[in-house]
Amino acid sequence: MTSPIEDYAILSDTRTAALVSRTGSIDWLCVPRYDSASVFGALLGDENHGCWRLHPRDEHATASRRYDGDTFVLITRWECASGVAEVHDFMPIGGGRVDLVRRVVGISGEVEFVQEVAMRFDYARTLPWVRQVGTPEDPALLAVAGPDAIIARAARLTPSDHVHRGDVTVTEGGRVDLTLTWFPSHEEAPAPIDVDTELEATKRWWGDWAARIEHAGPHHAEVVRSLLVLRALSHEDTGGIVAAATTSLPEDFGGSRNWDYRYVWLRDAALTLEALINHGFLGVTERWRRWLLRAIAGDPAQLQIMYGIAGERDLLERELTSLPGYDGAAPVRVGNAAAGQFQADVIGEVMVALEAARMAGLEETDFSWPLQRALLAYVEDNIERPDNGIWEIRNDPQMFTHSRVMVWAALDRGVRAVREGGLDGPADHWEQLRERVRREIDERGVDPEGGYFVQHYGSREVDASLLLLTQVGFCAADDPRMLATVARMESTLMHEGMLHRYRTDTGVDGLAGDEHPFLACSFWLVEQYATSGRIDDATELMDRLCALTNDVGLLAEEYEPKTGRAAGNTPQALSHLALVRAADALVGHSGRAADRH
């Protein structure tokens, strides 16, 4: 059976990730990067598409799990009739290699585990050549296909119909280490790791990072876990921040709204940076700023709204037939056609984040401010251009009100950088453009009858992205237009107490099917409630939303209230950073709209 999306925990080495189900199956692993091809792809198919199962032979065994403190070391505790045992899953940090470790620990009695390893390289398009290379004392399995190789030092495994199976038995105080290592197939297999050393180093690395988090107030555990997720999705080497660890988990179960989120969206990365900056982290910001310069390179006119993890531009969207999709939701997509869209809001998000970094003490460099000036020139060159918006509609571009506000925000941050930050630039010119855009929004972005902000010029619909207007200081949270917008959202976008992004039945996005409430939007509503004085409503909604995290504190993109199912890619950076902002709002943290009304 397909495991529910909410049943997955993530393991991360800050370069890639594995997803582990409640039943002990690793169903997703792409190596060596988040956006590489999968070795285990059962998440988007079944066991025939690659997985590593490890569970007690006792079919009546029960499992509970947790992370080991503020780390991504997952501890699954199995209780059987014959005894109790734990599996400690983790990916070692550092070392320039990709390892996956499963340590089986006996707690009491005797527990026999069954393991099954099915390796399917290149999104299950390639069956590797597999051979035994170890000794009876130290068994090892080597799998090779094209440029990739894996060595599994996982006890004795025997083949059966392209799946390797074996047993592992532990008694009280005993332990067995099972490891899997990826390496380029033209190189020699790496030596085995010292699991004790790597486990302690990994726990220490994550624990030290979490100890630096600056936060006090309600929902502390959720905030810390969310910030850890954001760090896990930030590539250690390149500085690129991916939007999620997965591709093609459906927004509409059984439908076709399935997208690849394993890339770096300028918008999502900028929002992630703000969340990290607000909680004491500047190092990640400096790495991402260098990443941004490399990605944009010499000509902002060639700007994309998203890139590969190292700044790659070629993200050609294609459909894979080798993976049937999560519970049959097809197609499975690799790449993302949104890379070719014009989304007018992204420069505003980048400028807001870089201003936040500057205000937090990150100094401008010889390239960082010229880069921002070049981005503002790009904004000016495209100031009258309709766009595809924050939701990446695959229909005719529109003058989306949120996008127009982010154009305003980009120019506003440029003016502020010169007048308050002492940097050089044509502040008077930018101010004239900024005020022109504001007048336009006031005239065309507000419904004349209802007095609320509209999704796009000429529409009477609302859109949850309008909740971001107050976050960037365009208007106050208690502005009558914003209050009217919230009321309109509550009557047209609210479902079971949670917000949809927009009404799909208007056809604005050009896509078939429907979707479920979008978690980030509901967290934005918490912030709006809190900053407009509806504290009780904010607290009640925040409590309900935090209760939707799974047993290890993770959130996907969407939530289906009727069935209690998570939907969309997971874990989702936007959901987690919106949770952090909402928690901050509840304790009076003003964030990026401070003193800007």
Describe this structure in words.
The longest helix is centred in the last third of the chain and has 19 residues, at 401-419. The chain has 14 helices and 23 strands. By secondary structure, it is α+β, with helices and mostly antiparallel strands. It is globular and about 75 Å long.
Write the layout of secondary structure elements.
Elements lengths: L8 E4 L4 E4 L4 E6 L7 E3 L10 E6 L5 E6 L6 E6 L3 E8 L7 E21 L2 H4 L4 E4 L8 E5 L2 E6 L4 E3 L2 E9 L3 E10 L10 H17 L8 H13 L31 E2 H12 L5 H14 L9 E2 L10 E3 L11 E3 L11 H14 L8 H14 L19 H19 L7 H18 L23 H4 L8 H13 L1 E2 L2 E2 L19 H13 L3 H12 L11 E3 L4 E3 L5 H14 L11
Antiparallel strand pairs: 1-2, 2-3, 3-4, 3-5, 5-9, 6-7, 7-8, 8-9, 9-14, 9-15, 10-11, 11-12, 12-15, 13-14, 16-17, 18-19, 20-21, 22-23
Helix pairs in contact: 3-14, 4-5, 4-6, 4-14, 6-8, 7-8, 8-9, 12-13, 12-14, 13-14
Q: In short, what is this structure?
A:
By secondary structure, the protein is of the alpha+beta class. Helices cover 30% and strands 20% of the residues.
Number of strands: 23
Strand content: 15-25%
**Global mean pLDDT:** 94
Rg for CA atoms:
24 Å
Query: Which regions contain 5 or more consecutive residues with pLDDT less than 50?
Result: 590-597
Largest sheet entry: 15 strands, antiparallel
Helix and strand composition category:
alpha+beta
Summarize the amount of helix as a percent range.
Answer: 25-40%
What overall form do the CA principal axes indicate?
Answer: globular
Helix count equals: 14
Distance between the termini: 52 Å
